[in-house]
Amino acid sequence: MADRREFIRKTSLGAAAALFVGRVWAADVPMLKETDPQAQGLGYKANAAEVDKVKFARYAAGQKCANCSLFQGKAGDAAGVCPLYAGKQVSANGWCSAYNKKVG
Ligand code: SF4
């Protein structure tokens, strides 16, 4: 019984520590700038409403990083990592021409 309690205590502490480290890590990752050369090449905008709809005709209203399959943030996060832009976070309300609708 004592072993079980100890296991639960250690597991809870480990989970809390992992959550904390994850939050700190996300907070330390800089935001992608629209002026970043790769961001410019893919037409990234931190606010999807500002996408150049003439240049990027494939953009459709409602598309944003938060519902893109590449977005690594959780539901409700204001920003999250996108693997296309190594070491940077993108805005949940952003968009770029590599957008791929999240399924499910
Ligand atoms: S690939 Fe998706 S998540 Fe990444 S910046 Fe473009 S729209 Fe946002």
Task: Give an overview of the whole structure.
The chain has 2 helices and 2 strands. It has a two-stranded antiparallel ribbon. The termini are far apart. By secondary structure, the chain is mainly alpha-helical. The chain folds into 2 domains: 1-29; 31-104, High potential iron-sulphur protein (High-Potential Iron-Sulfur Protein, Chain A). 31% of the residues lie in helices and 6% in strands. It is globular. The chain binds iron/sulfur cluster.
Précis, in short:
The protein has 2 helices and 2 strands. It is mostly helical and 104 residues long.
Small-molecule components bound = iron/sulfur cluster
Q: What separation lies between the terminal Cα atoms?
A: 41 Å
List low-pLDDT spans. Answer: 11-24
Tell me the number of strands: 2
Q: Can you count the helices?
A: 2
How are the strands ordered across the major sheet? 1-2
Structural class: mainly alpha
The CATH superfamily label of the largest domain reads High potential iron-sulphur protein
Radius of gyration: 18 Å
> What is the CATH architecture annotation of the largest domain?
Irregular
Reported by name, the CATH topology of the largest domain is High-Potential Iron-Sulfur Protein, Chain A
Q: How would a crystallographer describe the biggest sheet?
A: 2 strands, antiparallel
SSE string, helices as H and strands as E: HHEE
Outline, from the CA principal axes?
A: globular
List keywords for this structure.
104 residues; mainly alpha; 2 domains; two-stranded antiparallel ribbon; binds iron/sulfur cluster
